[in-house]
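3.2 Worked example (two chains)
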Amino acid sequence: MITKEISTEESIARILSTPLVQRVNRPAYGSKLFELIDKPVTDEWVLLASDYTYEAIENNEERVVVKNVSISTGDEVLINIEYLENDTLKNVSVDLGGINATA
């Protein structure tokens, strides 16, 4: 069987959209972002979302080193991640359409 390695961007999106303990064989895979579903977007919410994002990527994606996480809120929640991969600075934005934050 040939296994295709997924891109870093796709891996990051999967990690962030997977709740912790959802995968039986890998309970530490995923993020705590789902704890923020339907909670009001406050300064604390943004801080927790940033922390959960950083923690999830650092624990589950060994190809990257996270440099910065920022959260864009509005009609949709976007997590913007700046990271190093093979000594190259890259950016990815993840739309958390499944996470409904309330204003």
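3.2.1 Second chain
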Amino acid sequence: MSGRKIPHHHGRSTIAIPLETRRITEAPDAIAPDGLEVRVLGSLARGALAEFRLAPFATGRAVAHRTIEEIWVFTSGKGRLWRKRAEMEEVTEVGPGVAIVIPAGTHFQLRSESAEPLIAIAATMPPWPGDGEADPVAGVWAPTV
């Protein structure tokens, strides 16, 4: 964390919130349950932002989140995203400029189909709560990560 703390007025109380600055690093901060590399960009009480990266021609594991929702914006690479929720199911071509949503409980799986990594910046709401949030599910492709 960097920066100085400033008062933040939330309701009647004053809370000191750090001013955090981060840069995308070459090494990931974590590996997500679906096998994607995670580089955390920032986190607050109600949401977080991270870069998710899948290696060229790799396929992630299919998962479903229990409580969190995400919005992804793809910035690099090309691939496909499978999503299934109740009776709705689709495979979407993804690449730079494509934005998708993943509501809580949605089954999803990502597949890279280019020689460069498939990269998305994603907002997670609320922030990732830790182990046990993602459940493995049956996907449409054999995972390679």
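3.3 Remarks
Confidence is low (pLDDT under 50) at residues 4-10.
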